[in-house]
Amino acid sequence: MSQSSPPTPGQPGKSQPFVVAISSRALFDLDDSHQIFETEGLESYADYQVQHENDLLKPGIAFPLVKKLLALNENQTGHAGVEVILLSRNSADTGLRIFNTIEHYGLDIVRAAFTNGVSPHNYMHPFGAHLFLSAHGDDVRAALDAGHAAATLMPSATRQDTTAQLRIAFDGDAVLFSDEAEQIYQRDGLSAFADAEKTAAAKPLAAGPFKPVLQAIHQIQSAYPIEENPIRTALVTARSAPAHKRVILTLREWGIRIDESLFLGGRSKGEFLRAFGADIFFDDQRVHVESSREHVATGHVPHGVANQEAD
Asked: Domain range spanning residue 137?
């Protein structure tokens, strides 16, 4: 793809690609070398990576997602495409193995930041990244605190590809939307939450950290007919009627289409995500993450009131 100037995060447009930043441990299986780092330290880890720099890494949790994202560039009529960049705690020296593997798999990833043990999230803004996917929870939290969309990719099942279509699912509160409604639920209970949402049904919810991500995806979707679209999205939320109304009206106010909306009323999300065929699902609550990751690749968004006790 063309090496254009990076977009301003949260402001996708026809001249600006959807930019996804990913860590090396999310893209490839680095469990063995990471175990060396944990038990023997950075120097032993660096020696191991240099000694094995010509040994190819196996695909990681996010590998199928990245392949589908980059495949969107094969037909960019009407949209600016997708760019995937690497944000890694490796040094350039130890990162050579990663780029050798990227080249082997033919992934069009040409931009990277190697920070040698320091959190790389500060480079999201200069790169114009809309989303950061990492296996390092502290880096994800730092990115979210800085106002970026980010998720910790959990050890998860990945579905067998049966279609080239990219399928992405999102939770609502504290992910696409702010956690204002969740705060009421956590503080006052379900009845108070339902009453508050009914009263405020016509008032759009404030944006959550993943609104810019959904905007960028919608921009790409808008270049294709609905019935022949390379991307399909879903909202998968524990909300039920009548709390669904505010969600629908908020998306209408934003001018963003969601292809499928599942209002589960507290049901476990995992099997619904498998039925949808999600390539990845984003949720803020650990209970839903644990259910979902048994069925599909899952990213935990440690944002909002539901994560305060864990902080």
From this structure: 18-153
Confidence of residue 15 (pLDDT cuts 50, 70, 90): low
Predicted confidence (pLDDT) at residue 208 exceeds the cutoff of 50: yes
Last residue of a domain, one of 131, 153, 175: 153
What's the domain count of the chain? 2
pLDDT at 310 over 50: no
* CA distances from residue 152 to 19, 149, 169, 199, 272 in whole angstroms, order as listed: 17, 11, 15, 34, 21
* 102 vs 104: CA distance, rounded Å: 5
Name the token pair of 216: 């960028």
pTM (two decimals): 0.90
29 is catalytic: no
Which of 171, 173, 279, 283 is flagged as catalytic?
171
Contacts (Cβ under 8 Å, ≥6 apart) of 82? 17, 18, 19, 20, 69, 70, 72, 73, 220
